[in-house]
Amino acid sequence: MDKKGFELFIDGDKYRWEQDTITGAQLRVLGAIPEGVEIFLQVPGKPDEPITDTTSVNLEEHHGPARFSTQSPGSQAGDPDAPSLRV
Predict the structure, then answer these.
(1) pTM strictly above 0.70
(2) CB burial class (10 A; 0-12, 13-18, 19+) of residue 40?
(3) Pairing state of beta strands 66-71 and 6-10?
């Protein structure tokens, strides 16, 4: 592990984490993410991976900082089949 820890992003905001793994529950505390809001790990070239409170993410496995996003349950953000809300 780098002595400075690991850099990661949650909804574009940068955070530092001192361990090589982080759980969904720890992400909630770190990013002040309310219960009920879904967390996803952004995986380039693949669909975003859902992260539950018990999911553990190994930060050493990422090339560059891990990037997480959040969305409200039932939101269709990123769904190519979702109807557009643009006017």
Answers:
(1) yes
(2) middle
(3) parallel
